[in-house]
Amino acid sequence: RIAALHGRRVWDSRGRPTVEVEITTAGGQRGRAIAPAGASRGSAEASDLRDGGTRLGGYDVLTALDRVRSIIAPALIGMAVTDQAAIDATLDRLDPSPTRQLLGGNATVATSLAALHSAAAVRQMPLWRYLNPAGVRHLARPEVQIIGGGAHAARRVDLQDFMLIPLTAATIGDALVHIAEVHLAVGALFAARGPAHGVADEGGHWPALARNEQALELLTLGIERAGFRPGIDLGISLDIAASEFERGGSYHLAAEKRSFSRTEWLAVVGQWLQAYPIIAIEDPASEHDPIGMRAATAAFAARALIVGDDYLVSDPQRIATAAREGACNTALIKVNQAGTVTRAWQAHAAARAAGWATIVSARSGESEDVSVAHLAVGWGADLIKVGAITRGERTAKWNEMLRIDEELGGLPLAPFPLR
Ligand code: PGA
Ligand code: ZN
Predict the structure, then answer these.
(1) 202 assigned to active site
(2) What residue ranges in 73-195 does DSSP mark as E strands?
(3) For burial by CB atoms within 10 Å, which of 278, 306, 320, 345 has the most?
(4) Which of 20, 244, 246, 334 does the annotation list as catalytic?
């Protein structure tokens, strides 16, 4: 039973306040979790409750913490901590809006995950095992950022995420070695071009580039320089995050001062797909452009995973509808988009029911919280996406994957869905 539930203000990787919830059971077991925060959010996802005003740029979470203290704690204290469905149903009842306007998605996700961690502690199991006591056969394959852009790098380039997926690495340990080699090689290529580069929000190189395509060129060259075969040993994965640069049905690459109709834009993406070893594309069209998302899926799904993030917002109904309409073939799952563990799990199950691949993902604002690694392994996701192989809030997750793999005695990575 939940004996105490306590919220506190802690900090995320952008130096912004966020919500941590800690639960103590009657038996003295504890679990806690920290809410992450997105920067390029889908309009239909659970939204964080922020104080507004001027303190801490309006990002403070004292109102959300008050909701934890005055509404959530009284409702949950006394409930069985292992009954995740009932706990999450209570959160749903207290705030039925999918966007979690009343309680705040930051309050609900921290609470829901804290309950899950407490339940695993009660059962004296690591969380991944608690989620999948029948046994895990594969480990989620890493999808790792090398170059950041878009909303995560002051829009220096328009695309948000230039990532790699290792394909021939046999284990998570080898996969991260391959990634680190290319991260270093791409860093050397940037350094050779001049000093103007930094670190993007998810830890990748912040490009000093004039055109989006140059990032694809550098990434492909970096794979070669590191001694790997592009498209065979490592494939490129893009998070285009097109909602960020679509206005009124046209797509505007601000960094290049070029605008495109939907058809022209998808032709550009198609050219990139021809020219570079791209094996996954997230949000190629805007969340407001279902026609574009269906067209992208019809055109590219044979060669690349078509991943819905802003388009699906980890919503089981949206996933089912998209599958019916032929938009996307892979769901990005973010617990804080759904607001609770149960709803995110339902989204994962809806993707599986549609025959889709799944990617369990962190956010651009993160912390040392490693829940996402356990969910990816426990739910049997195909891939896990947590940003670059730098910065503590990212390496916390990768390092947890290494520990889990060791506990499991070394597991093969989940097969890449298209091969
Ligand atoms: P966000 O971006 O966490 O800033 O929303 C991550 C993503 O788009 O996948
Ligand atoms: Zn995304």
Answers:
(1) yes
(2) 141-148, 161-166
(3) 306
(4) 334
